[in-house]
Input
Amino acid sequence: MTAPQPKAVSFGAHDLLVVLVMNILWGLNVIAVKMAVTAISPLTAGFLRQLIVLVVCGSALRIVPGKMRLLTVLGILSGGIFYIFINLSLAISDNVGALAIAGQLGVPFSLLLAILVFRERIRLPRIAGIALSFAGVLLLVFDPAAARELPGIALTAIGSFIWAICSLIQRYLIGVPVLTIYAWIGFWGSITLGTLAWFVEPAAMRAIPDLPLHTLGWIAFSALGSTVIGQGSMSWLLQRHPVSIVTPLTLAAPVVTVFAASWYFGTPLTVLMLSGGAIAMLGVAIVTIRTARAGDTP
Output
């Protein structure tokens, strides 16, 4: 089964503006999620985020013939399971900049999945890029400021793998309206996270009516800024341009996260951490640029 390819569209100023907004929203989103999971609980915060997404996109919720199995799998993975790992990683970590670097593993994971699932053949440069990506994250282990975040880094790595699966699934949803995709993500995410939170975090779920407005504001920023606008922008771009062109344009997001989180939370930026981040992002850049030259992945 081969994924349908988007129609060729030139990359213009409108697309660049969308990329800029997307990277800023994604870069600042980690701060919002960290504040939300600290104020409430990880699963409850994720449930409220997906509930807001469902409310905003609910009017676009409709049956899409031939795509419902993919939309259901994507909704459960992207709207539910992904946020279980990401929110838990942020809840147990202080240095969120280290998590942002680990989050870049989604790109090499995507290529590895393409190799396993679609039998894509790659040469030495992209193999080196994958190795650099993992080496950069591994370097964090030797940084005392980041090494204590190993449980959070591991959870983020698992979340990145889930993100990679979702990015491949979205390639089969070309032609499905972006709002419809995220309406289903909000629907299945609300059910998955809400059910789990009700059993694991009952006190937090019961406290939802008493949440202060500033806490709800952090959640709303994540839901509207990162999910609806940010991830919606990514889906929009993927339906206009090959994934190998779009993916490198997300490299600015972790840079925004690392420096914004360091400033907001006062966490240190060590030479070893910056070096690991630079090596990881170099690997990601090699993978994505070489993939663009080789032709779009399935």
